[in-house]
Design a protein that fits this description.
The complex is a heterodimer of chains A (73) and B (186).
Chain A: H1 14-17, H2 21-26, H3 29-46, H4 55-68
Chain B: H1 7-37, H2 44-64, H3 86-98, H4 109-120, H5 124-137, H6 140-148, H7 153-159, H8 161-185
Helix pairs in contact in B: 1-3, 1-4, 1-5, 1-6, 2-4, 2-8, 4-8
The chains are: A mainly alpha (73), B mainly alpha (186).
């Protein structure tokens, strides 16, 4: 099985390590991605359309795009 | 990435890695910004329509495909980049990882971001900023692992990585189309 300090330890060891699912999600990129996407959507709803504000949702969009690739880290 | 023990050393490696991913992303953004200049004679409305169709098509493709069937390099970044030291290695690894095209691209989201820069034709500095933001965000998962990760982090993520990739595509599509509408159609 390997050392419990090993970051690549197979997930089958979850029960052995006693790490709850909620604790797993805290460290996961998916909730972070959803949070950034929600913040981006909020700015879209609040901002007047047109003018230089286009860059704000665009920044949120590219950050979400970068986070979406976190599974290949 | 390389296996390093000790949070302090991991954070040092992350700083080098994040600097690399940010610079790599900025370089890709700059290149796309230059290429976008070639499309500037095309009317904005036409570019907006092409972008909307392409974004929707790629997002649907991502949602219905078990794995993304788009052109990408399957070669992984070799661990030999760390041969000259952990800091330089982390920076170089980040540079290649953050550019967005050097290795696997499992989500349509990065294609959407590239198409956005190409078809919206932003000012050069905005293309660089967008690329840098993309690259920097690619380093966040590693920071999250360092600060909050527990044994089995990567295996847990692997179980829902496709969900992450698809959610990212849908969210990026919505945000980038809103931004494109604000710039070209608003």
């Amino acid at each position: 099985m390997g050392d419990l300090d090993d970051p690549d330890l197979p997930v089958v060891a979850d029960a052995a390590t006693g790490i709850p699912a909620a604790r797993r999600w805290v460290a996961d990129p998916l909730p972070l991605l959803l949070l950034v996407a929600a913040a981006g959507a909020f700015t879209v709803l609040l901002s007047p359309m047109g003018g230089p504000v286009w860059l704000v949702p665009a920044l949120f969009g590219v950050v979400v795009a970068g986070l979406a690739l976190s599974g290949s880290t | 990435m390389a296996s390093v023990r000790g949070r302090h050393l991991q954070l040092v490696l992350w700083v080098a890695f994040a600097a690399g991913t940010t610079l790599g992303g900025a370089a890709t953004g700059a290149a796309l910004g230059v290429l976008a200049g070639l499309l500037s004679p095309v009317p904005g409305t036409a570019r907006l329509v092409v972008l909307a169709v392409a974004v929707l098509a790629l997002t649907v493709l991502d949602l219905v495909s078990p794995s993304l069937p788009l052109p990408q390099r399957s070669a992984l970044i070799p661990q030999e980049v760390f041969a000259r030291g952990i800091g330089r290695g982390g920076f170089r690894f980040g540079l290649e990882y953050g550019c967005g095209w050097r290795t696997l691209v499992p989500s349509a989201a990065s294609y959407l971001a590239a198409l956005f820069v190409l078809l919206v034709v932003p000012p050069w500095w905005a293309a660089v900023v967008l690329g840098a933001a993309f690259g920097f965000s690619r380093s966040w998962a590693v920071l999250s692992w360092i600060l909050l990760g527990r044994p089995g982090w990567q295996a847990f993520l692997a179980r829902h990585s496709r969900l992450l990739e698809r959610t990212g595509s849908v969210a990026a599509a919505g945000l980038l189309l809103a931004a494109a509408w604000a710039r070209l159609g608003g």
